Amino acid sequence: MKTVRRIFISCVLVVLACAALSTTIQAADPLPSWNHGAAKNSILQFVAKVTNEGSPDFVPPAERIAVFDNDGTLWAEQPMYFQFLFMLDRIKALAPQHPEWKTQEPFASLLKGDMKAVLAGGEKALGQLMMATHVGMTSEEFKKSVSDWVATARHPKTGRLFTEMVYQPMLELLAFLRENGFKTFIVSGGGIEFMRPWSQRVYGIPPEQVIGSSVKTKFDLRDGKPVLVRLPEINFVDDGPGKPVGIQMHIGRRPIAAFGNSDGDLQMLQWTAAGEGPRFMLLVHHTDEEREWAYDRQSPIGRLDKALDEAQRRGWTVVDMKKDWKRVFPF
Amino acid sequence: MKTVRRIFISCVLVVLACAALSTTIQAADPLPSWNHGAAKNSILQFVAKVTNEGSPDFVPPAERIAVFDNDGTLWAEQPMYFQFLFMLDRIKALAPQHPEWKTQEPFASLLKGDMKAVLAGGEKALGQLMMATHVGMTSEEFKKSVSDWVATARHPKTGRLFTEMVYQPMLELLAFLRENGFKTFIVSGGGIEFMRPWSQRVYGIPPEQVIGSSVKTKFDLRDGKPVLVRLPEINFVDDGPGKPVGIQMHIGRRPIAAFGNSDGDLQMLQWTAAGEGPRFMLLVHHTDEEREWAYDRQSPIGRLDKALDEAQRRGWTVVDMKKDWKRVFPF
C-alpha cells in the first residue's frame, strides 16, 4: 500500500512540475506567433542587449524609439490599400447628396462598379476622388467618417473588419517592445488622420505617435466656434525619402529600430541603420499566398525590390511570412 | 521624577508631531514658488477634479494633454527672442569664414554692432541672417550649433545662461502636471530644432513632445551616408492660428490645458477651450519690471492685447507675475 501511495504522489508531483514548467515556458515566450528561427532570434537578441544595463549595447529607455510602417507591415494591403477602399466606400455613401456624380467622371464609373474605367483616369481621377472624400470638411468630421467606416466596412476577400486584418505576430512584437521600454511609432505613407482614430485601440499606439501623409489644414472660427478645415492641398507625403523627414519632424531623434515591408520604407531603414550604437532593421516579406498574399518585386502595391536587395546585402532581418509566422491574423 | 519624565516625553512627542506636520505641509505644496491666491488655486482645483476618479470631471490619463508656449511662458523673451540672439552670435562666429560679409549688408552692420541699421533692413535683412545661420547644413550640424551656443552664451542683462532664464514657477507647474498623469508639450513659434537639443534637460520635455516652426528638410545620401539637409524654405509657422494646426498635426487630439503669454497664443487657448469637458487656460502677464520685465499691449515682443481681453471676458486664469510668483528665476 505504502509503495502504491508513494508512486501515486510521485506521479502527481511530476504532473504538477510539468504543468508549472509548461506555464513558465509559455510565459517566457513573448512572441508565441513567431516560429523559432533566425528572424525571431534576431529580435530577442536585439531587445536583450539594448535592455541589459551591463551590456556595452545598453540604450537608455528614452532613446528606445521603434518605428513601424503600417500598410503591409502591421495590417494587410491587398487587394489594394485599405484607405483606397475607404475612399471608394465614401463616394458611394456620399452619392445621394451628389446627383451630378451620375454623369460626371470618375464618379459615374465608380458608382457603376467599373473600377477599370476609374483607374484609367489616372492621377487626375484619383485626385478628384480624394477631393470629394478627404478634404473640405473639418478634422472632426473627417475623423467621424473614418471611425464609422472602420466600425462597419468589411474586407472584400475575407469579409473581416479591416482592423482585424492586422498581423498577430506584429501585435505581439509591438507589445513586447513596449514592455521593454520602447516607444512605438507608426510611420506610414497612409493618411495621418486616417490611422489615428483607431491606432490606440488596435495597436496600442496613441495618436501623438502616429506619423503619416497629410493635407494642409486651416484654423477658422465658425459662429465663434474654432474648427480646423481640411484644405485641398498636400501638406506632406510620408513615403520613401519623406519617412526620415517625417521622423525628424515628429520625433526629433533617430529610431534605433525600424520595421517595414516595401521600397517605400528603404530610406527609413537606411536612416535608422546610420545611427551610432545598436540598430535593428526588419522587412516583412509577403511569401504566403495561402494564408495571406505573395508578392514582392513586381507588385504595384507594396513593391519590395531595392529594399530586399539592400536587406540581404547588409544583413537586415527579413521575415519570411510563410516560414516565420505560426499565425498571420488574430482570427 | 515620573511626572518630569512624562512631561519630557510629551514634549518630545509634540516636537516630533510638529516636525512631521510641517514636512507634510511642505510636501503637500507642489507649487512652492506660487503665492497663495486665485491663480494658484485655479491650477490646484483643476488638477484635483480631472484626476479624481469619482468626479464627473475625471479625465483618463491618456487625454491629459497640456500645451505650453515657450518664449515668455517658460523662459524669458526680453530684450528680444533668444533665438534672435542665437542668430546674431552665429553670424559673429561664422564671420571668419565669410570675409565678404565685411562689406555686405546686413552682415556688415551687424558685425560693427549697429543693430539699428540691421533692423532697418526689415524682413529682407532678417531673411538673409536666417539663411546664413539656420539652413544649408544638416539637421545634426544645426543641432550641434544650438547645443554649443546654449552651453556658453550669456543673457545680455543678467549674464546668466539662457537656459537659466526659465521661470521657476512654471518648472514646478510642469512637474506637478506630469506627476498627475499629464503629458506636457511645448507649442512655440520658435524653431522646433532650436528647442529640442535642451528641452529634456531644462523642462523634462522630450524632443518628440516639442512642436515649433520649421524649415523644409530633404533626405540625401552623402558618400552613402544618409543626412537630412535643412533647406531655405519655410515649412511651417507655429504661431497664432498655426498653433492649433501644429497641435493637430503632432498630437492629433485636443489639449485640455493650455498655457501662453501673448496674442500668438490666443488661437491655441481658444482651440483648447472649445473642447468638451473640463478645460484650463492660463496666460502669464509680465507685470514685474523689477524681477523680470513689464510689458503687454504695446510690446513688439510678446504683445498681449486681444488675448488679455478674451481671458478677462471668459474667465481664463491670468497670472500677475509680480503678485502671483514668489520667485521668478531658479537663481
Helices, strands, pairings?
2 copies of one chain form a homodimer.
Chain A: H1 2-28, H2 38-51, E1 65-68, H3 82-94, H4 107-111, H5 115-120, H6 122-134, H7 139-152, H8 168-179, E2 183-191, H9 192-203, E3 210-222, E4 225-236, H10 242-250, E5 257-260, H11 266-273, E6 280-285, H12 306-314, E7 317-320, H13 321-324
Parallel strand pairs in A: 1-2, 1-5, 2-3, 5-6, 6-7
Antiparallel strand pairs in A: 3-4
Helix pairs in contact in A: 3-6, 7-9, 10-11
Descriptive key words:
homodimer; 331 residues; alpha/beta; seven-stranded mixed sheet
Account of the protein in words:
2 copies of one chain form a homodimer. Helix content of chain A is 44%, strand content 16%. Chain A is globular and about 90 Å long. Chain A has 331 residues and is of the alpha/beta class. In chain A, a hairpin with a 2-residue loop joins strand 3 and strand 4 (225-236). Chain A has a 7-stranded mixed β-sheet, with helices on both faces. Chains A and B meet through helix 9, strand 3, strand 4, helix 10 and helix 11 of A and helix 9, strand 3, strand 4, helix 10 and helix 11 of B.
Question: Could you name the ranges of chain A where pLDDT drops below 50 across 5 or more consecutive residues?
Answer: none
Helix content class of chain A: 40-55%
Largest sheet of chain A: 7 strands, mixed
**Tally of helical runs of chain A:** 13
Number of E-type strands of chain A = 7
Q: Separation of termini of chain A?
A: 51 Å
The quaternary state of the protein chains shown equals homodimer
Structural class of the helix and strand makeup of chain A? alpha/beta
Calculate the mean pLDDT score of chain A and round it.
Answer: 93
Instruction: Based on Cα principal axes, name the global outline of chain A.
Output: globular
* H/E element order of chain A: HHEHHHHHHEHEEHEHEHEH
Strand content of chain A: 15-25%
Identify the most extensive interface between protein chains: A-B, 36 and 36 residues
Radius of gyration of chain A, in Å, reads 24 Å
The largest beta-sheet of chain A arranges its strands as 4-3-2-1-5-6-7
